[in-house]
Design brief:
Radius of gyration: 20 Å
Shape: globular
Number of helices: 12
Largest sheet: 5 strands, parallel
Strand content: 5-15%
Structural class: alpha/beta
Oligomer: single chain
CATH class of the largest domain: Alpha Beta
CATH architecture of the largest domain: 3-Layer(aba) Sandwich
Distance between the termini: 42 Å
Order of helices and strands: EHEHEHEEHEHHEHEHEHEHHHEE
Number of strands: 12
CATH superfamily of the largest domain: Response regulator
CATH topology of the largest domain: Rossmann fold
Length: about 400
């Protein structure tokens, strides 16, 4: 499927529920037969491993269309390649809003790309739904009333790791490799939340830019710090490099890996699956490579979807699975809208999801939003890489 192909999904209108006053205009992106949505994805560039997310979302809506669409309308998703470049994200998002007149932006991917467009979308009154980034700011309903977050926040994830470290290694020295944007900063903030006044004593960190070629020098610096715990707050390309470099340096710390970088196909295999044994992360979705879910009904639905709509895709790549999950949440919002696809009602329904169970999320995780709760997902479960699969341990936990 050509990711530059124009697809579309709908919405319309206005802001309410404490949102900025926006003059009511003709509903954009909606016709009697069509709902038009827009997004940007890194189909190329340093985060291209995440392009599978957008491909899965486009294919999901094609599946919905083949089944009759939503309330008599077909969903068309305009999914454009920004190469994970914020400047390109701005250019393409303006095109989607002003020329293509999409009803809303759905699940554009990346922390830095979304940071570059968020104020513009708020000013234009365009809903920005299920932002495909774990930065904590997307759930701030006061400052960003037209945003709904997607995954659990990186800050919550960092907090959970710090709590586990304190319980297992209270005198640990923690080395953090972090991407120099809101993604990395949120993980550091989560550590600070849990470590408090111990943070400065326990944590040493090194940042990288997404334009860097390698993180070898950062790895050497962090190893030389004497750290015995590592947190990799990185996107797939750099996470794979860091895992391999840690192995090459014969460094054997307790290792935590950001949830956005746990893909077997795009991270662990390039790093060497044996080099990642023992690494821990936090999960909210079912690992498509875990035999635990072999007979799971939700995963059977996902595998059938992949076989029919993305036969060239790797069903073991978690990026496809998460795209399926976000699209499921968008579909629920559209269903709740009924025939009122104004932007006002779109936001109202996106902020009124109750106990939605997504078939590819872990059992017990339910999606809930409210006018003052724009973080749909607040639970995670720890998991450990065995060499062949991610093995869950403990129960669902939150940072609170």
């Amino acid at each position: 499927m050509n990711h530059m192909t124009r697809r579309a999904v709908a919405l319309g209108g206005v802001a309410a529920l404490g949102m900025p006053a926006i003059a009511r205009a003709q509903t954009r992106g909606i016709t009697a037969t069509e709902i038009k949505l827009g997004q940007t994805q890194p189909y190329s560039g340093p985060a291209s491993a995440f392009g599978a997310v957008g491909r899965a979302e486009a294919a999901f809506f094609q599946m919905v269309n083949d089944q009759g669409g939503v309330n008599g309308r077909k969903i068309n998703l305009l999914s454009l390649d920004d190469g994970y470049s914020p400047a390109k994200t701005v250019e393409l998002t303006r095109r989607l809003v002003e020329e293509d007149q999409v009803a809303c932006i759905f699940a554009s991917l990346g922390t830095a790309p979304n940071t570059a467009i968020v104020k513009y979308l708020q000013q234009k009154g365009v809903p920005n739904l299920f932002v495909s980034s774990g930065a904590s700011r997307w759930g701030n309903h006061v400052e960003l009333p037209l945003c709904i977050a997607g995954p659990p926040s990186y800050r919550v994830e960092g907090h959970i790791y710090a709590k586990y470290i304190l319980a297992q290694k209270p005198d640990a020295k923690i080395a953090v490799l972090w991407q120099n944007d809101d993604l990395g900063k949120d993980y550091l903030a989560g550590l600070k939340d849990a470590l408090g006044d111990k943070y400065d004593r326990m944590v040493v960190s090194a940042s990288y830019e997404v334009t860097d070629a390698t993180i070898d020098s950062q790895a050497i610096t962090l190893k030389n710090s004497g750290a015995n715990v590592v947190l990799t707050a990185a996107t797939p390309k750099f996470a794979a490099q860091f895992i391999r470099k840690i192995h090459d340096l014969d460094w054997k710390p307790m290792h935590f890996l950001s949830n956005v970088a746990i893909s077997v196909s795009s991270v662990l295999r390039p790093a060497g699956v044996e080099n990642a044994i023992g690494i821990m992360s936090a999960a909210y979705f079912k690992d498509p490579n875990d035999p635990t879910w072999k007979n799971d009904a939700g995963m059977a639905t996902f595998r059938a979807f992949m076989a029919k709509y993305l036969p060239a895709g790797d069903p073991g790549d978690a990026a496809y699975l998460t795209g399926f999950g976000w699209a499921s949440m968008m579909l629920q919002t559209l269903k709740q809208c009924g025939d009122d696809l104004s932007r006002e009602n779109l936001m109202r329904q996106a902020a009124a999801i109750k106990d939605l169970e997504v078939p590819v999320w872990l059992p017990g995780i339910k999606i809930n939003t409210a006018p003052t709760q724009h973080n749909p997902m607040t639970q995670l479960q720890l998991q450990r890489w065995t060499g062949t699969t991610w093995e869950l341990f403990g129960g669902l936990i939150s940072a609170t």
